[in-house]
Amino acid sequence: MNNLKLISLIGILMLWCNLSPAIAQETKLMIRAKAKDAKFIGSSIGGAKIIVKNSLTGEILAQGLTAGSTGNTKKIMEEPVVRHQELAEESTAGFEAILDVKEPTLVNIEGFAPLNKQQARVKSSTELWVIPGKDITGDGIILEFPGFVIDILSPQTHEILSAKDSIELKANIVMMCGCPITKGGLWDANQYEVKALITGENGQSKEIKMEQKEKVSTFFAKAQLESGLYEVLIYAFDPVTGNTGVDKTNIIIK
């Protein structure tokens, strides 16, 4: 083979390489869900649903639940955080998305948490470029979820109660990661405004302050109501962080 033919063959091979389709590369992306002013959302409260999509086409590239522990309380909540310091440990809740991408791809990451608490569930999302073969690990991408999880324990839905008796108002309130709320605790009940808003069928409302006592994360109050139909809404508000949460039920007073 003469030099001219060899050069031509090399040129053809180079052209073919340049024109050949890119090969998808497995790329790992760690995604974590973190409660605002609290810890990571993991298995103990049902996790966060994570969906990774191609931002341009909407194609779902990966989806799953965050699983693992809420993380190291001291590291997350008490120690000062410096640049590049990781909050997550090996056991800390997260979802590892494994993507097959052929070229740099802009992805949309959506999280819904806490997944199993519909009245408290909120959506958090972000976008970023994923480069083939360039894993994002460690803390990875952290989505923040503001709020409180509130479950009204009493009165029960559509419960029929007597106007002669005082009505017990009771609610379980935790952070979005499930972390407990107590007076004087790390998540201090004294810092939060918790009230029951009771609205009758005539549209008139009364607001009653609730306090945490007797049991961790459980808030109590009592009310006296006349006969009628009522909506009971219990809310929590943190004036320091802006966290909010709500649950509702309906009762009948005879």
Task: From the structure above, extract its key features.
16 strands, 4-stranded antiparallel sheet, 5-stranded mixed sheet, mainly beta
Figure out the total of helices: 2
- What value does the Rg take, in angstroms? 26 Å
| SSE ordering | HEEEHEEEEEEEEEEEEE
Main β sheet profile: 5 strands, mixed
- The best one-word shape is elongated
Could you please describe the fold and organization of this structure?
The protein is mainly β and 254 residues long. It has helices at 3-19, 73-78, and strands at residues 25-35, 49-54, 60-65, 95-101, 105-113, 122-130, 136-145, 148-154, 159-161, 167-175, 193-200, 205-209, 211-212, 218-223, 228-237, 244-253. Strand 2 (49-54) and strand 3 form a beta hairpin. 31% of the residues are buried.
Quick synopsis:
By secondary structure, this protein is mainly beta.
Helix and strand layout, with pairings?
Layout: H1 3-19, E1 25-35, E2 49-54, E3 60-65, H2 73-78, E4 95-101, E5 105-113, E6 122-130, E7 136-145, E8 148-154, E9 159-161, E10 167-175, E11 193-200, E12 205-209, E13 211-212, E14 218-223, E15 228-237, E16 244-253
Parallel strand pairs: 1-7, 9-16
Antiparallel strand pairs: 1-4, 2-3, 2-5, 5-6, 8-10, 10-14, 11-12, 11-15, 13-14, 15-16
